[in-house]
Amino acid sequence: MAFRYRCRACNGPNLKKVIDFGKMPLANGFLAEEEFESEKFYPLEFGFCVDCSMAQLINPIAPSVLFTENYPFVSSSSGRMVNHFDELVDSAIHESPKSSPRLLEIGCNDGAALERARAKGAMVLGIEPSGTAKIAKEKGIGVLEATFASLLAKSIRQTQGLWDIIIATNTLCHVHDLDDVLFGIKMLLAEGGVFIFEDPYLPDILRLTAYDQIYDEHKWYFSVTSVNRLLTRHGLKLVMVEPQTVHGGSMRYWVINEGEKRDDSVRQAIEQEQFIDLERLYEFKRETIVEIRNLQDSLDESLKRGRKIAGYGATSKSTVILNALERWLPIQYITDTTPQKQGRFSPGVHIPIVSPDKLREDDIGVVLMLAWNHFDEIIEKDPIFNERSRKLLFHSRRVAEWVTR
Ligand code: TMP
Ligand code: ZN
């Protein structure tokens, strides 16, 4: 009999393993040369619960290992993302019946969204366990340097009261104990308050064969169907959903404690998600295997033709792509604008990370676009991509079609 896994969302016994990526290094574990020997690898297994439709990692890594002081992601490194957060904050404040609402952000990173909310008159507080909290604090934003959990929620409630708006972007999908976090959020939501969160959207991952969205930090791959079931179990109500193009396709969920009529968007999305079942997930697995093989062939072919190859964007997603390949040696370096990543090496495959300026100095013939979710912004600001002699490679055919749409 096949080994049975328990769903970490609904606790049912029907979590099925879909893709086994084998052992992977930490997706965000960009490292120095002297750390190569002590680098650790962990199993990466992607599963789907046939009872509640929640796609998830099987046996995810503990948060203490994943989110350390050196966590290198900084929200404000992308101008588009800053604009995106501004728009989110604007519409949340606009919808609030209060003129200066109390706004709490879970996983506030460098405080990009809170800065905007404060400028719009909100009273703000952020919660952020990683080192990026310091950047937010330097902006004079109140930040609790901690991992959000129901115990922390209880103490915030006792000392600071309830919140009219709670936001969490690209955070809930990272959460280890989702039940505990939702319990905490419910505890902190004021009467008439709204919880808005946004995360990569499973149907988009399937549609684009974006297998690189599957990595250690992404423990949950939400759909409206699975989120609706999850929230109902917690006595929360999903009232509206809004598709987003950021991060290669995300969904924004508007959640309240109770009352109020549902927007039609929730029902429509659930209807459109009927195609998602175990069979579709297995198809995604087959497509993923084909894409990895195609990428390997393209890299080998470029090398045979004597073309120099570089990667663009030392993303956490790139760790999955590069470590899924059998041979990655032809990639000379990966460029990234984040100063904390430059001078370090990519996890597992140890390709050097350099500034994008290097690309302008070298005769690189092929660029593997690893930061594809920022593609519009990158080609706009970087004229090297207009040079016809330079070939662009993507890790998935449908991603390539989507970004160049
Ligand atoms: P993300 O996919 O997790 O947002 O990470 C994006 C990475 O890509 C981050 O390390 C910064 C880098 N990047 C560039 O190198 N150039 C750019 O123009 C942008 C927007 C991001
Ligand atoms: Zn389940």
Explained architecture:
This protein has 405 residues and is of the alpha/beta class. 34% of the residues lie in helices and 23% in strands. The protein has 14 helices and 16 strands. It has helices spanning 63-66, 79-95, 112-119, 133-138, 150-160, 178-188, 202-207, 224-233, 264-272, 278-304, 316-324, 357-361, 375-381, 397-403; strands at 15-25, 41-49, 55-58, 102-106, 123-127, 143-144, 163-169, 189-200, 220-221, 237-244, 250-256, 308-312, 331-335, 353-354, 364-369, 391-393. The strands form three sheets. It has a seven-stranded mixed β-sheet, with helices on both faces. The protein is globular, with a radius of gyration of 21 Å. The protein starts with 14 loop residues before the first strand and ends with a helix. The model has no long low-confidence stretch (mean pLDDT 93). Bound molecules: thymidine-5'-phosphate (TMP) and zinc ion (ZN).
SSE topology:
Blueprint: E1 15-25, E2 41-49, E3 55-58, H1 63-66, H2 79-95, E4 102-106, H3 112-119, E5 123-127, H4 133-138, E6 143-144, H5 150-160, E7 163-169, H6 178-188, E8 189-200, H7 202-207, E9 220-221, H8 224-233, E10 237-244, E11 250-256, H9 264-272, H10 278-304, E12 308-312, H11 316-324, E13 331-335, E14 353-354, H12 357-361, E15 364-369, H13 375-381, E16 391-393, H14 397-403
Parallel strand pairs: 4-5, 4-7, 5-6, 7-8, 12-13, 12-15, 13-14, 15-16
Antiparallel strand pairs: 1-2, 2-3, 3-9, 8-11, 10-11
Helix pairs in contact: 2-3, 5-6
The chain binds thymidine-5'-phosphate (TMP) and zinc ion.
